[in-house]
C-alpha cells in the first residue's frame, strides 16, 4: 500500500470519527447573494465531514468562484484574492475517498479532483448548472455529489454564471463583476469587488436528517462504462489542480 493511499485512508478514518450530529444545511453568503446547501451527511459522510472541516475552520471565507462555464458548472473553494493577482491557493487537508452515489444533475454540489485520481478531492467544489450526469457521473470514476441547492436559491448560481468571463494569469473563464472587455484590453488591475467572493459559509441547521423529503437522483454510473479523464469540452477542467494552478501562489 503506497504512502499516499495510507494518508488518504487515515484522513478518511479521522473524519469518520467526528460527531455524527454534524450540520446538514449551510448558508453560503456571496457578494451576489445567499444560497443554502442541503448536505447529504448520511449517504456521503466522508465528503460532508471534509467539507465541514473547511467550513468550521473558516477556510472558505474569502475564497472566490474562480471558474464559470455557463450551462455546465461554476467552481470555487480553492483560492483567495489578496489585493492583486495571482490568486493564492488555500492550504488543503489530506485528500479523501470518492463517494459517487448521487447524480450530477442541476442544483447539486460536488467535489472537484485531480484527473486520473478518483480519491483526490480536497477543498474545491462546484455547482452543477445543468444535468451533467452523462459526463460527470462517469468521468474519473464519477464526481461525488454531496449536497443540493433549492431551485429558488439557484438564481444566485445562475447570476454568477451570467457574468462576463476573462482570462488572467493562467486562469480561464474567471467570472468578474463591473469589469469590461475594454478594461481587459487596457490591462486595468482587478480589485476585490470585481471578484465573486464567498464572504462566509455558516451552519444554519444541525439536524442530521434534513434531506428527508428531498428528491435525490442516484448516479447513472452502474459500472458498465467509465468516462475519459481527458474528455474534451466542459468536463476536463473539473480536475482539482489544473496546470494553470502552477502559476498560482499557495496561501500560507
List the helices and strands and how they pair.
Layout (H helix, E strand, L loop, with lengths): L2 H14 L8 E6 L2 E7 L5 H13 L5 E7 L3 E8 L7 E2 L18 E4 L13 E4 L4 H4 L8 E4 L5 H8 L3 E4 L2 E5 L5 H5 L12 E8 L43 E2 L2
Parallel strand pairs: 5-12
Antiparallel strand pairs: 1-2, 1-11, 2-8, 3-4, 4-5, 4-7, 6-7, 6-8, 9-10
Helix pairs in contact: 1-2
Q: Tell me, briefly, the overall form.
A: globular
**Helix vs. strand class:** alpha+beta
Major sheet: 10 strands, mixed
CATH superfamily: Cyclophilin-like
Task: Count the E strands.
Answer: 12
Rg value: 17 Å
Number of domains: 1
Tell me the span between the first and last alpha carbons.
Answer: 30 Å
Strand content: 15-25%
The overall average pLDDT, rounded, is 84
SS field, number of helical segments: 5
CATH fold-level name: Cyclophilin
Known CATH architecture: Beta Barrel
Considering DSSP H and I runs of 4 or more, what fraction of the residues is helical?
Answer: 10-25%
CATH class: Mainly Beta
Please trace the helix and strand order, writing H or E for each element.
Answer: HEEHEEEEEHEHEEHEE
Q: Ranges with pLDDT <50 over ≥5 residues?
A: 8-23, 224-237, 239-252
Short structural summary:
The chain is of the alpha+beta class. It has five helices and twelve strands.
